Amino acid sequence: MAQPFRLITIKVSHYCEKVRWALDRLGFDYVEEAHPPLFSALASKLRGGGRTVPVLLTGDRVLKDSTEILHYLDERAGSPGTLYPADIRKQVEDLEEQFDKDLGPAARRLVYYHILDRKDLTLPVLLSGTGAAEQRLFRMVFPQVRELMRKGLKINAEGAERSIRKLEAVFAGASELLKDGRRYLTGDRLTAADITFASLAAPVLRPDNHGSGIRLMSTPPEDLARVIEPYRQSPAGQFALRLYREERGAMRGKIA
Predict the structure, then answer these.
(1) Secondary structure class of 239 (helix, strand, coil)
(2) Which fold has domain 86-248?
(3) Tens digit of pLDDT for each residue in 175-211?
(4) Which end of the chain, C or N, has fewer beta carbons within 10 A?
(5) Does residue 159 sit in helix, strand or coil?
(6) How many whole angstroms from its chain centre is CA 18?
């Protein structure tokens, strides 16, 4: 019997959620191995990956990028072309690339800007699903990790303002696509574009049924709540929240 895939993650990571959703959607058997930041980089490199997650171990390959992983899964699914239908493949890939480049970093940076100084909000999500030893060590080095995150992700006031502009543009573009009443971003089928948008928007939308099993800040700080509420109320935000209710809620990954 073939061994299940192993997915190396930071459990709350929205790029990891993108891959987790695709695995669940396509029915692949997998085990998730979650680590906190910094420890995740070590776990990835020890398995042949780089410094970032997600990393998918298939038994004969090590896949290191969320989009690369989705293409791999789609090609090996029972019905190839589910995530990237041939007739709209270019449109799906272009949207996915835009969301990976603009939406993902902006959503992450904006939320961390508002919560990184709040251990009560940050530590529970970063440590969810991780081992006890890593949790103890991470709590000890968290001040240093926090500064590395600020520097590496450009988490500062200027970065937050840039992120808001990026988010406004991405949400406006997605809302425009949905204006004609289509059910999904590219028409009547759920594709990699929809999974990518909903997953990468999750930090600012705080959906129920997140594949990590984590409730993303049921009570966010007031300043963050004011900033992100317009995204939740936008047509694109309501679309992504619907996907989490109707598509994601029935699926869950397996945790090591």
Answers:
(1) helix
(2) Glutathione S-transferase Yfyf (Class Pi); Chain A, domain 2 (1.20.1050)
(3) 999 999 999 999 999 999 999 999 999 999 999 999 9
(4) N
(5) helix
(6) 5
Joined together, the tokens standing for residue 83 give 């995530």
How many C-beta atoms lie closer than 10 Å to residue 228's C-beta? 24
Strand pairing of 5-9 and 30-34? parallel
Write the pLDDT tens digit of every residue in 27-76. 999 999 999 999 999 999 999 999 999 999 999 999 999 999 999 999 99
* DSSP symbols for 85-96: -GGGHHHHHHHH
Nearest one of 116, 114, 133, 113 to 125, comparing CA atoms: 116
Residue 127 to residue 101: CA distance in whole angstroms = 26
Peptide bond into 221 cis (omega under 30): no
Nearest CA to 66 out of 240, 239, 200, 227 is that of 200
Taking each helix axis as running N to C, give the angle between helix 89-98 and helix 192-205, from 0 to 180 degrees, rounded to the nearest 10.
Answer: 20
CATH fit for domain 5-76, picks 1.10.287.130, 3.40.30.10, 3.40.50.10580, 3.20.20.10: 3.40.30.10
Length of the chain: 256
Residue 126: pLDDT above 70? yes
- AA letter at 179: K
